[in-house]
Amino acid sequence: MTDLASRSAFAGLDLLASAVLLVGADGRITYANTAAEHLLESSLKALSRLQLTALFVNADELDGLCQQALEHKYADLRQDLTLERIGREPLQVHSIVSATGNEIVIELRENVQQLKLDREERILDQSQVNKELIRNLAHEIKNPLGGIRGAAQLLELELPAVHLVALREYTQVIIKEADRLQTLVDRLLAPHRRPHIVGDVNIHEVCERVRSLMLAEFPSGLSIRRDYDASIPEFRGDMEQLIQAVLNIARNAAQALHLRIEAGDAELVFHTRVARQVTLAKVRYGLALDLHIIDNGPGISPQIRDRIFYPLVSGRDGGSGLGLTLAQTFVQQHLGVIECESRPGLTDFRILLPLP
């Protein structure tokens, strides 16, 4: 059957959101709907030349389900699978395998919950590595930095009067650059030094503080829209840390919006809701704060999208690359997580925090 004929015969399957493969008794793929082409990143023409076992490195388990279906041992077989592919990310899917005559129908649905758990685990692991790296790097920089600054000051005192004005310019450059690096190191170490001051936190007070600071910093061209759920309860936390986390995200957004601010149509949205049955760091919570900070800017460059929470990674010239790293650290100290979705015209930073 040609690709066109296959498309016509199984046109209804293209309406499904889940991936569907039809496999012959010989194990060769005879049809893949549009969702399957998208999931497997391959066309029907390419897939129809392949055996099912050639699609995945560990296809034996899926092939075993197909054989059981052909033997009509079960009406259908359902199983969560991790399908590994050469040179690509593994697929976390829920599979449903059934047989119709001599053909096998395989439905693959991406396991969104598993993907989310894996993403959160990567963020937590990355954050832990970042913390160790920052602490070690900051201490390694700080020790010689004091010596460099002190030596420059002593050198300045020893300069002959006749050359003082001319040479003092160079010693001041050393001192000022040492001070700048000291400030950077202090910022890197700040989340680990400052004690966690816990009190009752109203998230809308946090948002309003940030809103007033942002409007003072960007008095024209930027509008900040509020979409609050007034039923969100107070929770225990460090209000100053949460203000700093939200402020860092909002300020990053505003800086990315500079062209829209000049045009007068830049917008930030603070959106709060309650999320139910949320898993954070492998712990299940009945209720969680769901705070979104949304902007209508150009979006985050794909080159750095997966690394935006790494220290010293910045999407703009002159950026320190610490704002989002510190925000993630502060939120994680509250047992929460920051997620990000971005495309041109919309960037959405989502803060999830457990609620009592």
UniProtKB/TrEMBL annotation:
SUPFAM superfamilies: ATPase domain of HSP90 chaperone/DNA topoisomerase II/histidine kinase, Homodimeric domain of signal transducing histidine kinase. The keyword Phosphoprotein applies. Its EC number is 2.7.13.3. It comes from the Bacteria. Keywords: ATP-binding, Kinase, Nucleotide-binding, Phosphoprotein, Transferase, Two-component regulatory system. GO terms for molecular function: ATP binding; phosphorelay sensor kinase activity. InterPro entries: HATPase_C_sf (IPR036890), HATPase_dom (IPR003594), His_kinase_dom (IPR005467), HisK_dim/P_dom (IPR003661), HisK_dim/P_sf (IPR036097), PAS_fold (IPR013767), Sig_transdc_His_kin-like_C (IPR004358). GO terms for biological process: regulation of DNA-templated transcription. Residues 136-356 form the Histidine kinase domain. The keyword Endoplasmic reticulum does not apply. Pfam families: HATPase_c, HisKA, PAS. It catalyses: ATP + protein L-histidine = ADP + protein N-phospho-L-histidine. PANTHER family: SENSOR HISTIDINE KINASE (PTHR43065), SENSORY HISTIDINE KINASE_PHOSPHATASE NTRB (PTHR43065:SF16). This is histidine kinase.
